[in-house]
Structures are given as structure tokens and as C-alpha cells.
Write a structure and sequence with these properties.
By secondary structure, this protein is of the alpha/beta class. The protein folds into 2 domains: about 1-30 and about 50-205, Leucine Dehydrogenase, chain A, domain 1 (Rossmann fold, 3-Layer(aba) Sandwich), CATH 3.40.50; about 220-370, Rossmann fold, CATH 3.40.50. Helix content is about 45%, strand content about 15%. The chain is built from 15 helices and 13 strands. The strands form 2 sheets. The protein has a 7-stranded mixed beta sheet with strand order 10-9-8-7-11-12-13, with helices on both faces. The chain has a 6-stranded mixed beta sheet with strand order 1-2-3-5-4-6. A hairpin with a 5-residue loop joins strand 2 and strand 3. Helix 6 crosses helix 13, helix 6 (about 215-235) crosses helix 14 (about 395-420) and helix 7 runs antiparallel to helix 8 (about 285-295). The longest helix is centred in the last third of the chain and has 26 residues, at about 395-420. It is globular. The chain starts with a strand and ends with a helix. The model is unreliable at about 1-25 (pLDDT under 50). The protein binds glutamic acid.
């Protein structure tokens, strides 16, 4: 069902200025993203004989909020922006999922990302449903003050559609702790003064100094590494023996690489929108120095001491593990054929197309699917939400330990499903999640 925003939707005075949607065409290889999620769910539902009504319920989101809102630019102009919040399912708990700022954001993409959050939260067994939000904008074209005003206007336009016990956003592509702090501040201002103490739990991924949790910033990368460690143990090796490549050196890619460096793994190549680079020497690329370089220059290109390579050459680098940690649709039929690795550990959401999956399977390349591999972020978001609601502060060791525990159990459940039903890891992960949701619908029923 598509609904108008519940409150504070700002009327569009002039039509939004046209924005170029670069890149990802919906051709045969990239069907509509939400349709892909539905097909993935159907495949898993089929494999475990899921109750048909559960499949039917999950085939459309509970609610979709679409807002157009004006923002004052630094030069005094008013510019219109389009934003979305899709609330896919909340049978397990409040809607949960990030907000992204990207020029390619569309309602279809946000719908798919929201559905992936439903699967992810159910799979790792935390009491949240799935949601996602996005604003269609290239934040690189805006100043910091413009991004702040846009964020605040977006939150205002969403109004009562988000809330600590209802729908809890978090960082995603091109949003971070600072963005979350602006969201809390704006949301708090919409509450009566006596109610404002509740505002902290409206988002997770806040700065630690402003109610965030220690360990949240690195959590998705930490989870990726934890999962790679579990995979390596099953192959009778350790992370210190591994070589790897990373696509995307933002929050997820950079943190995974820095943690992998501490564990002795070797980074052979990296790629992002600015280009691709390969280590020139036998010691590999230094993840900490590369993260500094990216912070300073905006991308991996030009990293001192590394050799520039083409995107094709990047995909062909021989390594043990490839970590896609950027956007959707990167491991396609074509790029999957170039890969020269044993494992694809999905840090991004939706990086592999169905054609890519088929090629990986045919070539015997293992996959740690996104809904499992990048779940560390939302798990520590859950810890942050609990701390906010309980007025508590957990320490880093406790967070790391609890995160690993949850991911280890999820890994075990997926592995058991892979083995008992002879499924690939992605289908098995979906099957575990869907079974969890099915159980709740069976117990609760549907009222009224
Ligand atoms: N955006 C992250 C994801 O896709 C984190 C979501 C959250 O913490 O709520 O999993």
C-alpha cells in the first residue's frame, strides 16, 4: 500500500528539478531490484515449504512514504528534493534500516533495501522489522550546511512516520554519525519538551558523545571479518593466511580492511568510484594509510606506492577473498567470470545479481550473502537502541563479544540449512529468516 506521509508532508510548490540517474539501467541483467528480492524470497520459500500466506504478506511493503520537500541552498535559492521511507515488515519489531543519500536512489531500490532489512533482522534474530530510506541526491554537489538543512527538512517531512518504538533509521551509503545527530536533534524538536528524552532512540549510529554506542561505527566491517573468520575456520585456515581485495573504501570497506590488517590478512587491491589500485610490493596495501588517503582525497585513486589498474583487472586479481562493500549490482555475470577468488564476502547490500550468483555457483566460489555478512551493523544498532532505552553504556569488549555471539549463531543456523536442504548460502539464509517470520505469524495470527 502506498500512503501519504502521516504528518508534516510539505506540499511541493514547484516540480523537483530533473536529476540525472546515472549508471544502473534496468536491463535484463538488472531487473527491478525489489522484484529480485521477491524472487529470492520465493526460491527460499519453495525450498522449505513456507506457508503461502507469509510469502504473500512479504511480497509488498506495509507502508511507503514518499516526500518532496524544499531546502534553502547556500546562495538563497530553494531546491526541491525527493525522499522515501519504505517500511517493509514489522511483525518482529519496529521497522529498522538505514537512510542513504545517492543520486540513484529510487522507490524501487529503497523497497528492495527495506525487504533485505526484514530478512537480515529475522536471520540474526533481533526484534526488528525491515525499513529503509533515501534521498535522491549526490551529496558531493552540496555543502555541509546544505546537507544538514536537507537532513533536517527530510526528518521534518517524515514527521511521525519515524519514532523510537516504530521506525528507527541508521546510517547507510553517504550518511554517518553526524547525519544521525542532526536527525535526533530535529526529531526531538518535534516532541513536547517532557517527551524529548525519548528522542535519542529514534536513530542508531549516532556519535558516541551524543548517545551512540561504542563499536557501532566499525560494526558492519567487524561483522564482515567475523564471518570471514568463521568461513576460514571451516576451511581449516585462519584469517592471517588470507589475501583479499575490496570494492568500496567507505565505512564498511575501510573498517573491514583495517580489522583484517590487525589479524594479518593481506590487502592486494582496492577499487571505488575514483579508480582501481593494486599493491606494487609483496606486503600488500596498508589499510590504515589507504583509509587516511581516502579521507583526504575522496577515493583510492592516486594512493602513493600503489599501481593504477583497470576495473576489469581489479576484478581479475587473484586472492582468497573479494569483499564488495559499495553498491548493488557489482558482481554481474560478466564480473563474476573475471573473479579469481575462493569467497565473495558481501559487505554491501545486493552487490551480486542473479546472473552473478549463477556464475559464482558454477565456478565453485563460496558466497557469504549480504543479509548475513553485513548484519554486524544492525546488530550493534540494536545494542545502541537497547542502551538508549535502558540508560546504559556497554563497553567495547562487551559489544564485540555479544556481536560475535549473535553472528556465530546466525552462521550456524544458515550452515545447518545449507547442509540439511542442500541449498546455496543465500537461499539458506533467506530460508532461516522466513521460517522465523512464519513462526511469529503462526503464533500471533492476523488481527483484526
Ligand atoms: N544501513 C545498514 C544496513 O544496511 C545498517 C542498518 C541499521 O543499523 O539499522 O544494514
Amino acid at each position: 500500500m502506498t500512503t501519504a506521509p502521516i504528518a508534516n508532508g510539505t506540499a511541493t510548490l514547484t516540480p523537483p528539478s530533473p536529476r540525472t540517474i546515472a549508471g544502473r539501467a534496468h536491463d535484463a541483467e538488472h531487473p527491478k531490484l525489489f522484484q529480485r528480492v521477491r524472487e529470492q524470497m520465493d526460491q527460499a520459500a519453495e525450498a522449505v515449504g513456507l506457508a503461502p500466506e507469509v510469502r504473500k504478506i512479504l511480497s509488498s511493503p506495509v507502508c511507503e512514504v514518499s516526500v518532496n520537500f524544499p531546502v534553502r541552498m547556500d546562495d538563497g535559492r530553494i531546491e526541491m528534493f525527493s525522499g522515501y521511507r519504505v517500511q517493509h515488515n514489522n511483525v518482529l519489531g519496529p521497522f529498522k534500516g538505514g537512510i542513504r543519500y545517492h543520486q540513484d536512489v529510487s522507490i524501487d531500490e529503497v523497497r528492495a533495501l527495506a525487504a533485505w532489512m526484514t530478512i537480515k533482522c529475522a536471520l540474526v534474530d533481533i526484534p526488528f522489522g525491515g525499513g529503509k530510506g533515501g534521498v535522491q541526491v549526490d551529496p558531493a554537489t552540496l555543502s555541509r550546511r546544505e546537507i544538514e538543512r536537507m537532513t533536517r527538512r527530510f526528518v521534518y517531512a517524515l514527521g511521525a512516520n519515524i519514532g523510537p518504538g516504530y521506525d528507527v533509521p541508521a546510517p547507510d551509503v553517504n550518511t554517518d554519525a553526524r547525519t544521525m545527530a542532526w536527525i535526533v536533534d530535529t526529531y526531538a524538536a518535534t516532541l513536547p519538551p517532557q517527551e524529548r528524552y525519548r528522542a535519542l532512540a529514534v536513530v542508531t549510529g549516532k556519535p558516541v558523545s551524543a548517545g551512540g554506542s561504542v563499536g557501532r561505527e566499525k560494526a558492519t566491517g567487524q561483522g564482515v571479518v567475523d564471518l570471514i573468520e568463521m568461513w576460514a575456520a571451516d576451511k581449516n585456515c585462519t584469517v592471517a593466511d588470507l589475501t583479499y581485495t575490496v570494492q568500496g573504501f567507505g565505512k564498511v570497506g575501510a573498517w573491514a580492511a583495517r580489522i583484517l590488517k590487525d589479524k594479518g590478512a593481506k590487502l592486494l587491491a582496492a577499487q571505488d568510484v575514483t579508480g582501481a589500485i593494486k599493491a606494487s610490493g609483496p606486503t600488500g596495501l596498508d589499510a590504515d594509510a589507504l583509509a587516511e588517503h581516502v579521507k583526504k582525497t575522496g577515493g583510492v585513486a592516486g594512493f602513493p606506492g600503489a599501481t593504477a589498474i583497470t576495473r576489469e583487472a581489479f576484478f581479475g586479481v587473484e586472492a582468497d577473498v573479494f569483499i564488495p562493500a559499495a553498491l548493488e549490482n557489482q558482481v554481474t555475470g560478466e564480473t563474476a567470470r573475471l573473479l579469481n577468488v575462493r569467497l565473495v564476502a558481501e559487505g554491501a547490500n545486493g552487490p551480486t545479481t542473479p546472473e552473478g550468483d549463477a556464475v559464482l555457483c558454477e565456478r565453485g566460489i563460496d558466497v557469504l550473502p549480504d543479509v548475513l555478512c553485513n548484519a554486524g551493523g544492525v546488530v550493534v544498532s540494536y545494542f545502541e537502541w537497547l542502551q538508549n532505552r535502558g540508560g546504559a553504556a556497554w563497553d567495547a569488549a562487551e559489544i564485540d563479544h555479544k556481536l560475535k555471539d549473535i553472528l556465530t549463531r546466525a552462521y550456524g543456523r544458515v550452515k545447518e540449512m545449507v547442509e540439511s536442504k542442500s541449498l546455496d548460502w543465500r537461499t539458506a539464509a533467506y530460508a532461516v529468516a522466513l521460517r522465523r517470520i512464519e513462526q511469529v505469524y503462526a503464533e500471533r495470527g492476523i488481527y483484526p
